[in-house]
Specification:
By secondary structure, the protein is of the alpha/beta class. It folds into 3 domains: about 25-70 and about 350-470, Serine Threonine Protein Phosphatase 5, Tetratricopeptide repeat (Alpha Horseshoe); about 75-225, Rossmann fold, CATH 3.40.50; about 235-315, Arc Repressor Mutant, subunit A, CATH 1.10.10.10. It is about 50% helix and about 10% strand. The strands form 4 sheets. The protein has a 6-stranded parallel beta sheet, with helices on both faces. It has a 3-stranded antiparallel beta sheet with strand order 1-2-3. Helix 17 (about 400-415) packs antiparallel against helix 18 and helix 17 (about 400-415) packs parallel to helix 19 (about 440-455). The relative contact order is 0.12. Mean pLDDT is about 80; it is low at about 1-30, about 215-220 and about 460-475.
Length: about 475
């Protein structure tokens, strides 16, 4: 008997037999040795709102109540941050677009811009220089592949004063950003209509300029088209001739950038794959030939080299090496490098390839990448990776992998205060771990579930699955590297 139901029934799930050799996980908070888990190669705890979370390599995330100290609501930083776009020439079309954007911002605090990348870059430089006084915040983000929650989290960390190293709850995040004034420039954003509304409402005190591939939002958000004449039309024939002029190292570097699908790659990753050969000169050549684009140490393939891919290039041969090198670099540089300012798509592609490969060491690397993303405070991106892991496990019939991803999703939701979603994910993860004989893992999941279940009524519990999974609708599957 459990909770008044006959043995074998728990909602729509079958229970193990009462005599199964397994600990009673219902009261696991009293018997789970958190200290022993923390000593087994786990990460340092990260405080998130009223919870703290740390990651164990075998059982997944462990959540516990954090010591709570009274603190004020998040507030803007005492000195405004000014994260500016790289300097670009103001070519044809920038002056006219700048004037039109200024007019639009006088009527609405959100403006969408479309146009050639170089022209948009020059427009952003001009906006940051001419329209913002030194006392006002400026934030420029390249958000290709980023989910909305991750973009808001990064903006909060950059623009608001808060505890160092912590991840704010959703309510604290919104409260902090609504009190900020400044200019927010987003490059390669791909918002839906609803996401654009949420973003504009959250940063209601800021002027926001969004440059995306899909153009102005169809919900009436003002749009500006920036136009410019190209010095030389990059036809496939021109691209082929320029590729043929490359030496071997530059040729391989271009293949790696194409394998990343147009997402940004740090030059240290390219250097590691070129066996220490200094990549700066080769990457500079690619940029001069308009085969790649550079933003400091970050590089991506130009659109002219992606569609169609020039003949003779075989980017797929670098897929495995590039994914492994990217995951290793992310683990080493997750704290030191501000990777969030240069796109998120790279990590999702890397994660997708590691999952698709299927080998045990690659699956372990995928889980380490999930942990690295979470510990770097990018919890929107963490959620995207976990949902991809659930989809992958369901496709392959991997019960243990599905249980792991559901456990992580539930632990994340618990830390952010979404107890209904947490309970739905954790209850299913616990049952899956129990059935597969992972007794220790089931106990860890039940420990987190005990925290999530406190104060939730039976009626709310029946709605929790919808709360947990409704947001999966309409998600696009990631394209693996290569």
């Amino acid at each position: 008997m459990r909770g008044g139901r006959p043995n074998g029934i728990a909602g729509d799930r079958a229970e193990p037999a009462p005599g199964a050799p397994i600990v009673d996980v219902r009261g696991s908070a009293a018997v789970l040795d958190l200290g022993e888990l923390a000593a087994g190669g786990a990460s340092a705890p990260l405080t998130v709102g009223y919870m703290r979370i740390w990651f164990t390599p075998v059982h997944g995330a462990v959540v516990d109540r954090a010591p709570v100290e009274p603190h004020a609501l998040p507030r803007p930083r005492p000195a405004p941050i000014r994260l500016l776009p790289p300097q670009r020439q103001e070519g044809p079309g920038v002056a006219e677009a700048l004037r039109e954007v200024g007019e639009r911002l006088s009527d609405s605090h959100v403006v969408h811009v479309t146009g050639p990348r170089a022209t948009v870059g020059g427009l952003f430089c001009a906006l940051a220089r001419e329209r913002t006084p030194p006392t006002e915040a400026v934030v420029y983000l390249d958000v290709r592949g980023a989910v909305l929650a991750d973009i808001l989290q990064v903006l909060f960390e950059l623009m608001c004063a808060g505890p160092s190293g912590s991840v704010a709850s959703a309510d604290e995040l919104r409260a902090g950003l609504r009190g900020v004034r400044g200019l927010v420039l987003l490059r390669d954003a791909d918002f839906t209509v609803t996401e654009a509304d949420i973003f504009g409402d959250t940063l209601r005190g800021c002027s926001i300029v969004i440059a995306g591939e899909r153009g102005p939002s169809p919900d009436g958000v003002p749009g500006v088209t920036a136009t410019a004449l190209s010095d030389e039309e990059m036809t496939p024939d021109v691209v082929e001739l320029r590729v043929a002029s490359l030496d071997a190292s530059a040729f391989h570097a271009l293949e790696m950038l194409i394998a990343a699908g147009g997402d940004a790659v740090h030059e240290r990753v390219i250097a590691a794959l070129l066996n220490g050969d200094e990549p700066a000169q080769r990457l500079r050549v690619l940029a001069e030939l308009a085969l790649a684009e550079a933003n400091g140490p970050w590089h991506r393939a130009a659109s002219s080299a992606l569609q169609p891919i020039p003949m003779g290039l075989r980017p797929e041969r670098w897929a495995g090496a590039l994914a492994t090198a990217l995951a290793a670099w992310a683990h080493e540089a997750r704290v030191q490098e501000a990777t969030w300012t240069h796109g998120f798509g790279t990590w999702r592609r890397t994660h997708a390839w590691l999952l698709r490969d299927g080998q045990a060491d690659r699956l372990a690397a995928a889980r380490r990448l999930q942990e690295d993303v979470a510990l770097a405070g990018r919890w929107g991106a963490w959620r995207s990776l976990l949902l991809d892991a659930v989809d992958h496990a369901e496709t392959r019939g991997d019960t243990a992998g599905r249980a792991w991803a559901l456990h992580q999703l539930g632990s994340r939701a618990l830390c952010l205060g979404d107890r209904l979603a947490a309970r739905a994910c954790l209850a299913e993860a616990r049952d899956l771990r129990w059935r597969t004989g992972d007794r220790a893992g089931a106990a860890v999941t039940q420990h987190n579930l005990d925290l999530a279940s406190a104060g939730i009524t039976a009626q709310a519990s029946r709605r929790s699955r919808l709360a947990a999974w409704a947001s999966r609708a309409g998600r696009r599957r990631p394209e693996p590297i290569g």
